[in-house]
Amino acid sequence: MVIMEHPKETADPLQQPQRAVIDPAELPLRVNGVAKTFGGGFDPMRALPWNRKKTQDGPRRVVDNVSFEIRRREIFGVIGANGSGKSTLIRMISTLLLPDEGDVHVFGLDAVKDSMAVRALINRVSADPSFFKSMTAMENLMFYGRVYGLSPQQIKTKTPDIMKRLGLEWERAIEPMSHLSRGQQQKVAVARAFLTSPTLMLLDEPTTGLDPRSKRDVQAFVKQVQAEHDATILLTTHDMEEAELLCDRIAFISGGKIVAEGTPLELRQMVAKEDDRDVADINMEDVFMQITGKDLAEDEEDGGSQ
Amino acid sequence: MTFIAQPIPMPQRQSRAGVAWAFIERQTNLWKRYWAWEIVWLVYGVVNTLAVTFIATQVGETGAVPQADVDRLVLFLLIGTLVWAYLSAVLDDISLVISWERWEGTIEHTLMAPVERWIHLIGMVLFGVMHATIRTLIIFAIAAPFFEIDLANSDWLAAGAMLVVGSFGIAGLAILSGILPMLYPERGQQMSMMIQAFVLLVSGVYYTVEVLPQWLQVFAYISPATYILDGIRGAIIDGESIADLAPQLLALIGFGIVLIPASLATFAAAERWAKKTGRLKRQG
After folding, report:
1. Contacting residues of A for B110, CB less than 8 Å apart
2. How far apart are alpha carbons A144 and A155 in whole angstroms?
3. Which residues of A are less than 8 Å from B117 in CB distance?
4. Which of A19, A120, A132 is closest, CB to CB, to B106?
5. Which pLDDT tens digit goes with each residue over A132-168?
6. Candidates 1.10.8.60, 3.10.20.70, 3.40.50.300, 3.20.20.70; CATH matching A23-37+58-304
7. Pairing of strands A232-237, A200-204
8. Domain residues of chain A, as ranges?
9. Quick check: helix, strand or coil at residue A136?
């Protein structure tokens, strides 16, 4: 809910001058009974003569009645195997996918009806950095910053500081993205997202495929942003260590459904109580296995074969 | 409604013109990076213009046609090839609005940005028009000295008006064909190119539409390119003024009025459908 004009300048590179404000009484993210099914409906590809005889896939319910809420300044983890529905969930929150059932609200704004306002509040880092590879990092950041409403001057001022915090040399900014390593590209992707100072950040497996050093840099940056700024973060990952390190609360997703939710300690305590073990001996992998009856690799196979 | 002591910042919005300019700047950067392809298309454009227009020179050398008619044919073909170089570049650049993003893998990040789609499309249209204009002028500058052409009688204002007004209808057509890669991620771009080929066939680029079979002439009437070519040839070859070309101009205004809103509405509907069915993912 955009409620008033409130211009303010700030020297902090991760903070922006502001015009409108939103109601803080509203939760940063409220996902209510969201479901998504793929396949089974009309497909124009199948209407093409050369595709008519191909067997149509049956409907697949990828996200099934998922509900959760995230509080301000919280890092909320959604943990699950590949194919468990994490990215579909993120796409629905990002306004890139319309839910079949349920609704998503970002600071009280409906992600379908108020999608433009929601998009101005969020940004996303995905496992694949997704850049114009022939353009330089700075040209990419200039483009994405501008479409999020930043002036070229603001982008030029903020970028060096964000890159420095991510452990990325400034010289890399003027090289084509295709010349950068996977880890460097992912750091630029993180910079792109934080450049726009989103109030809700969606991190979709941001450290997948990164070397240990880059992974630590990104994780440290996320922690730093959470500590210093008014950012709320939804993190999806299948890295249990990362989840425990970064997240205030965690939800486990399996087969498109949330199967457990709580703080890392609460989840470990739950398993400790059921198994009559010491909490210190239990890790997130144990919790996942206890709740779903399988480990991540098995769940991934099930998800992939759905 | 709650007013608060510690407001949560929202990004400051720059002007819509600034956002549209971001797309023009991005396409320009891509154009610079892919300069080798630009050279290829430029050489192709020059060669195509020369190859087609030399047909008129060949006709003249047979001696069977009066020189005045030969000169007219040279201009007729030269205008056809140059206007088509412009129109095809506009159609290409705009219809790639989705395909570019799929190729680069940026479709999700671009489409989740808080940009009104019509602003996004205006940026792409303006880049397409500027890019096509530059390329066509270079082709003209290189090709023109090869032929003896008399442009003393030409009404350049009328020709320019035809091109500017006609560009709206072409932009609408290009946006419509740009929707196909959104609906058909794997083969949509090929379908867009087939539409472009069909426009080339029916619009009288290298011949008058009267030579087409009757059933194909129907499509000539609903192609804005037909009226653009007819008007520009009238202005350049016969020196017709804007007043003389009023019927063509009115037709092109009509195309713009119908095609621009129709293409924007169709694009919005297609985007909604793509979001419903999960087609806004990278490809290739």
Report:
1. 147
2. 10
3. none
4. A132
5. 999 999 999 999 999 999 999 999 999 998 888 888 8
6. 3.40.50.300
7. parallel
8. 23-37+58-304
9. strand
Chain B residue whose CA is closest to A124:
B109
Complex-level ipTM: 0.88
Interval A114-135: pLDDT, tens: 999 999 999 999 988 889 999 9
Torsion angle of the four alpha carbons A127, A133, A136, A139, in this order, in degrees rounded to the nearest 10? -80
pLDDT of residue B44: 96
Convert the pLDDT of each residue in B36-75 to its tens digit: 999 999 999 999 999 999 999 999 888 888 999 999 999 9
CA A269, A271, A274, A278 torsion: positive or negative? Answer: negative
pLDDT band at A14; cut points 50, 70, 90: very low
Nearest CA to CA, how far is B117 from chain A (Å)?
A: 10
Task: Kindly list the domain boundaries of chain B, sorted by start residue.
Answer: 18-277
- A-proximal residues of B, 255-284, CB under 8 Å: 272, 275-278, 280, 282
Q: How high is the pLDDT of residue A12?
A: 47
**Per-residue buried b or exposed e for B155-170, using 16+ beta carbons within 10 Å of the residue's own CB:** beebbebbbebbbbbb
**Are residues A6 and B7, on separate chains, in Cβ contact within 8 Å?**
yes
φ, ψ (nearest 5 deg) of residue A278: -75, 140
Residue A235: count other Cβ atoms within 10 Å of its Cβ: 27
Residue A106's beta-bridge partner residues? A109
User: How far, in Å, CA of B121 to CA of B100, rounded?
Assistant: 13
Q: At B47, list the tokens.
A: 């060669």
pLDDT band at B7 (very low <50, low <70, confident <90, very high): very low
